[in-house]
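Worked problem 6 (solution included).
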Amino acid sequence: PYRGRWEKLSAGQQAVNRSHAKVRALVEQAIATLKSWRLLRKLRCSTTRITSLVQAVLTLHLASSD
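Solution. The predicted structure is:
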């Protein structure tokens, strides 16, 4: 992202900052969702299994929220 006052940034820099903020908000929301899952707090297994487990739980989570 570009630093400085919003008014002093060019239109292109503002667009880059805006898109960066949108992506950052989605990532922060995803991390907050993962932290709220109690299943992951005491999980002790290989990273390969954790990745598969998170994908499965996320799929169920997204399916139930529709």
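Discussion: The chain has a mean pLDDT of 83.
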